[in-house]
Amino acid sequence: MIKFVKKYLIFLVIIICLATIFICTTIGVANISVSQTVNILFNKITSIGNVEGVKESTIAIIWNLRFPRVMLAFLVGGALSICGVAYQGIFKNPMADPFLLGVSSGAALGATIAIVFNISAIFFGLDMITVFAFVSALLTLLLVYNISRIGNKVPVPTLLLSGIAISQFLTAIISLFMIFSDQMNRVVFWTMGSLNAKSWNHLILILPYVIIGFIILFRYHRQMDIMLLGEDTASQLGVNTEKLKLVILVVTAFITAATVSVTGIIGFVGLIIPHIVRMIVGPKHKKLYPYSFVLGGILLIICDTVARSLINQEIPVGIITAIFGGPFFIYLLKKRKRGGI
Amino acid sequence: MNLEVLKTENLVVSYGDKRVLDCLNISIYKGEFVGIIGPNGTGKSTLVKAITNIIDSHSGDIFIEGRENRNISKKERAKLVAVVPQEFSIDYEFTNLDIVMMGRNPHIDKKNKIGQKDFDIVKEAMTLTNTWDFKDRFFNELSGGERQRVIVARAIAQQTHIILLDEPTSHLDIHHQLEVMELIHLLKKKRNITVVAVLHDINMAARFSDRLILINHGKVVADGTPEEVIKEEHLSKLYSMEMIVRENKILGKREIIPLRAIKELTEKKGINIHVVCGGGTGEKILERLKSLGFNVTAGIINEGDSDWEICKILKIPCVVAPPFSGYSNEDADKNRILINQSDYVLVTSVPFGIGNLLNLEVLRNIEKPIYFYQNSKIDIDYAQGKAIKLLDELQKKENFNYIQNYDELLQKL
Amino acid sequence: MIKMNKVLIIITLLLMTFTWTACSNADNSGEEDTNSNGDTSVTETTYPLTITDDLGNEVTFEKAPEKIVSVSPGITETLFELGLGENIIGRDGASDYPKAAQDLEIVGDYKGPNTELIIDLAPEVVFAYESIPEDVNQLLEASNIKVVVFNPTNVDGVLENIKQVGVITNKQTRANELIESMSAKRTEILEKVKDVDQKKVFMDLGDFISVGPNTFINSILEEANAINIASDSDTPWPTLSIEKIIEDNPDVYISTYTSVEDIKSVVGIDVIEAYKNDNIIVIPWGTEEHNMIQRPGPRVVEGLEIYANTIYPELFE
C-alpha cells in the first residue's frame, strides 16, 4: 500500500489538488448549487455551454470571487511553502519560516503607514496598502542583509539575529502608530491575513514573482541539498555559499513581499508544510520544492475556505492556519518519526 | 624534483588579534602522503580551512597546482581539492548514494543534470571504498567508520588530485581508524593522489606518511621524513610530556610511547644510583628513576638485553657485555667504578646464573647502601646455589636492605 | 512580536464583545432607573442624589458638580448644550465639538484616559464612555472622583443619557427642552421613512468591516427603516466577505473610509444595486458629518437624518 502510494504520489497529489480546488469553489456563504458552479466554471474556462439565465451576481461570485480566490490561496500557500523550504535549508533551522528575517514586520509597517495616513490611491489597479507593504518588505530585507554583512560574507547567525532585532524594532513602530491612530482594528486585521476582496488582478500581480521565483529556487535544488551538510562542507564541495544565500534571500524576498503585500501575514503554512513534505519525500529539494508548493497550496485553500464560509463573516485566514497549524505541528514534533525536525 | 601541487607562502591567518597561522611556508609535491602534526590549537585545521578558502588569509599566498588560491572559484577549487572532515552526522535523511553524488557537484555543468557518467564515477568510488552495498541506506544509520568511508567515497567522486584530511579518524575506534587510513593510503598508491592529512595521532601519521610537517604556533617546526621529524627533541617539549621514541620493529616505522604529561613532584637531582638489572627486570624502574631526576647508571648488561635497550633510549650510562656471553673481570672493574661513584645501589629481581654472578659478587666489598628487590615468586638462583650463598653473605652486611616494592625504595631515598 | 500582539488584540476584541452584550443588559435596568428619577414636571434636582449609571454602578452626588471632566465626545457635546461648557475642565482628544471644546485641556483619549492628569485636575465627576478601562475607573474612585459611565446603544439611550446628565448637573429644564426638540425632529424623520420600500444598506467602516447587531449604528439604521445587511452577523464588527455583499446585494453602500473609486475597483462589486445605481456614498472619517452619524450625542438625530437622507434621498427633496 505504502509502496503504491509512493510510486504514484505525484498523481495522487495532483488529483487531491484539483479536487480541493473544485470542491472549495463550490463552498461559500452565497447559496450556489454545485451544478451551477460547474456550469459557470466550465463555460468560463472552455467557452462552451450556456450561462444565460444564470443571475449576474452568481456568475460574479463564482468567476470573479471564489475561483480566483481559491487560485490565489493556492498560489500564496505554495509560494509561502517554497520560501519556507528555502529558508529552512539555508538557515539549517527547523523553526525558520518565510517571515524569519522581518519581511512580515516590514510589510506590516508599510501597510500600517498606508492605513494610518489614509493614503488612498489606485496604482496600476492596486491599492496603496499593497504597494506600501511590498516596498517596505523589500526595504526591510535589504536593511537586514546589509546590517548582517561582514566584508563579502553574510554569516547565518548574524542574519538571524539582525532579522529578529529589526523585526522587533518595526513591530514597536507599528504599535506606536496604532496607539496614535483610530485605525487600530484595520491594522490588526491586516496583520492577521486575509484573502477577502482579492481577485484576478491580485493573482496576476503575484503570479510572475512566484513562477520566476520557483524556477530560480528549483535551479539551485542540488546546492541546497549540499547546504544541509553545513556551510563549510558545501563550500568544499564547490557550492558558492555566499552567492547561494544571496540568491535565495533575494528570490524569497520578492516572493514573500509580493504575497504578504496582497494577503497580509499568513503564518504557519511556510513553517509546517516543509516539515510535512520532508517526512513524505525526504530532504532532497528536487522533490521538496514541487511537493511543498502543491501541498501548501492545498492547505491554504482549505484554510481560506473555512475562513470565508464557516460563519456569516470573514475570519482572518491567519487565525485559521494558526489554529490548524499549531496543534498539528506539536503533534509532528511529538511523533518525530524520522529526523529533519 | 616532483611537481609542486600545493604551496603556502608566508601564510598568515588570524582570528581577531590571534595569529593562528604565522608566516607558514609549506610545499606539497605530487603523489605525496604528507602528515601534518602538532599540538591542539596550533592551526592544523585552520590550514585546511585556509586552503579551501573557508576563512580568509590575512596575508601571504596559497597556490594550488600553480594557481593563486583567491583567484580560484569555489567550483574550480572543488575540482582540485577534496576534503575529508572529522566524522560528522547530519540531521537529514540523505542516502549514502545522495551523499556521494554530492561529490559530483563541481562537475555538474550548466544543464544541471546528473548523467550516466556521474553515476558510474560514484559507483566506482563506492565500490572502491566498499560502501556500494549500503548505497540506499541513510547516512545517519551507519557506524562512524562506515560514514567516514562514505565521505572518502565522496572525495573520490570529486575526482581531485589532492585530498585534504582534517583529523579524519578522531572520533573512530582503533579498528575504524586503521581502516580509514589504510583506505586512503591505498587510494594514494592506486591513483597517485596527493594526500595531505591533518592528524593528531603521531604514530598513525608516522606510519602512513611519506613526509611529516610538524606545526606549532602556526609555524613549521620540523619538515621531513618521519625519521627526521619524530624525535624527542622536537616532540616532547611541544606536547609537554615525556615520551620514548623508538623503532617499531614489526612495522619498521618510528613510533613514540607517551609516558606521562604530569611531572612527579619530587625532583631528585644530584643523587646517584646504580641499578643492577638484566632480562627486562629493570625497564620500569630505570625509566622511573631517570624521570625523577636521579643520575642513573647500570651494569653489567648484555648487549641486546631489553634493559640495555632502555638504557640506550634513556641514555643511561652502563657497563655492557657482549651478547650471550659471561662477564669478564674487565667488565666487573668498570662496574665497580660506576658503583663507587653512586650513592645507592639497587638490585632488581634479576635471576642470577653463572654468566652474571659477577654482578652479585661485586657487591661484597661495597659499603654503599644496597637495596635488594625481593620477589618471592621468582627463583633467583640458576647458579647451583652459588647465588644463594652469596646472598646469605651479603645479608649479614649492615648496608644491605630488602625492599618489597619500588615505592618503598623511593620513599627511603 | 506581531503574532503575540495579534493574540492579545483578538482576546481584547473578544472581551469587548462580551462586555458589550453584558452592558446592553445593564443598560435596560439603567433606563428604568432614570425614568423613575426624571419626572418631567420636576425641574429642580434635590441633593443628595443617587443615580445608577449604564454599568449599573450607584453614584451619589451631594450637590451639582461644578468641575467636570468628560472623556466622551457625545457627553461633551451634551454638556455644552446644557450650558455647562464653563464647568468642563478636561476632555478626551476626540471631543472636538462645539469649537469651544477644542480649547479645553486634553486628558487622554476615550480608550485610555490619563489618570494622573485627571486626578491632578481634581474634578468632582468624570463622565466616561463604556470603553473606559475598569482599573482607570477604580483609580479615579479611589481619589474621591465620581465616575459616571454611559453606554447608549440606540437613540433612546442617548436621550436617557442627556436626561441623566441634566439631573446630575441640575439642568433639567434645559435638558428637557433639548430632548423635546430632538424627539420632535426624530418623529418627523421617522414619519417620513415609515412607509418607504425598505432598502438594503452596507455600512463599510474600512476593509469591509461592518456594523453587526447590538451596535449603535445598527440601531440608527433600523430607525431609518433600512436593512443592515450585516445585522445577521455573529459579532458587532464583522468583516464581510465580498461574496456575502454580492449575495445580499445592498441598494446603498455607505463607507466611512475609502474613496468611491476604491470601492468601485473591487472586483465583482459591479453587480450590486448600489454600484449600478451609483448609490455608493463616502462619509469620510473625521468630518462633521461622520461625527454625527456615529456619535451618541445631542446631534444624533441629525445623524439619523443624514442616514435617512442618504438612503432615501427621494423623501427629502
Automatic annotation (TrEMBL), chain A:
Q: Which residues cross the membrane?
A: 9-34, 70-87, 99-123, 129-147, 159-180, 200-218, 246-276, 288-307, 314-333
Localization, per the record, is:
Cell membrane
Q: Which CDD domains match?
A: TM_ABC_iron-siderophores_like (cd06550)
UniProt keyword Membrane, yes or no: yes
Q: Name one GO molecular function term.
A: transmembrane transporter activity
Keyword tags: Cell membrane, Membrane, Transmembrane, Transmembrane helix, Transport
| InterPro entries for the chain | ABC_BtuC-like (IPR037294), ABC_transptr_permease_BtuC (IPR000522)
Q: Can you supply a Gene Ontology BP term from the record?
A: siderophore-iron import into cell
Mode of membrane association: Multi-pass membrane protein
One Gene Ontology term, aspect cellular component: plasma membrane
Q: What family is this protein classified in?
A: Belongs to the binding-protein-dependent transport system permease family. FecCD subfamily.
Protein name as it appears in the record: Iron chelate uptake ABC transporter family permease subunit
TrEMBL record, chain B:
Query: ABC transporter domain: which residues?
Result: 6-242
**Highest taxon in the source lineage:** Bacteria
GO molecular-function terms, A-Z: ATP binding; ATP hydrolysis activity
Keyword Lyase annotated: no
Q: Name one Pfam family in it.
A: ABC_tran
Record keyword Signal present? no
Q: Which UniProt keywords apply?
A: ATP-binding, Nucleotide-binding, Translocase, Transport
Q: Which InterPro entries match?
A: AAA+_ATPase, ABC_transporter-like_ATP-bd, ABC_transporter-like_CS, P-loop_NTPase
Q: What is this protein called?
A: ATP-binding cassette domain-containing protein
TrEMBL record, chain C:
Please state every residue range assigned to the domain named Fe/B12 periplasmic-binding.
67-315
In its keyword annotation, does this UniProt entry include Signal? yes
The family database entries (CDD domains) matched by this protein are listed as: YvrC
- Residue spans with biased composition (Polar residues)? 35-47
PROSITE patterns in UniProt: FE_B12_PBP, PROKAR_LIPOPROTEIN
Leader sequence segment: 1-22
Keywords assigned by UniProt, alphabetized: Signal
* A Pfam family reported for this protein in Swiss-Prot or TrEMBL: Peripla_BP_2
Q: Name one GO biological process term.
A: cellular response to iron ion
Region entry Disordered, spans: 26-47
Cross-referenced InterPro entries: ABC_Transporter_SBP, ABC_transptr_periplasmic_BD, Vit_B12_bind_prot
- Superkingdom assignment: Bacteria
Coiled-coil ranges (or none)? none
Family assignment? Belongs to the bacterial solute-binding protein 8 family.
Query: What protein does this entry describe?
Result: ABC transporter substrate-binding protein
The organism of origin for this protein? Alkalibaculum sporogenes
